[in-house]
Amino acid sequence: MIHTRILMVCLGNICRSPLAEGILKSMVNSDFIYIDSAGTSAFHKGELPDIRSINIAKKHGIDITDQRSRQFKASDFDIFDTIYVMDDSNKTNVLALAKNNNDRAKVKLILNESNTEITSNVPDPYYDKDQGFEIVYNMLHDACTCISDKL
Ligand code: 4NP
After folding, report:
1. Domains of the chain in sequence order
2. Which of 5, 30, 28, 12 is nearest to 86 (CA)?
């Protein structure tokens, strides 16, 4: 039975949060942990993850092609226990939809889970080449390892 629900959030829900969703799903038992992702924008609503995210995930044995972009909504606060955002801008946009302190307490920067990172923001790789996606993948892998260790 599901006991923990985690939502990964970025801006477009096509680059960073689909990777975070796929990586964490590969580390936990889906009978108990439900994981989803969303974007603060609807720019890419209904779209597959970016091909560069699909490829870097595939390189590590993870298939994220079942994912489709959707926009974060206020009711997500009622479903999810923890909402991991990729950067400060995502955090501001998600917190703007919070109804109370209970909602606000659910929002965390994902890199704060892994203390090895100097920066607390996962850089937006959208305008990068493939190397940016490799860097993002490694950051998210480290953070998801820390998250799954605690679950
Ligand atoms: P993501 O990357 O937030 O990691 O999915 C982006 C994807 C699309 C855009 C920006 C960031 N965009 O401006 O369309």
Report:
1. 4-150 (3.40.50.2300)
2. 12
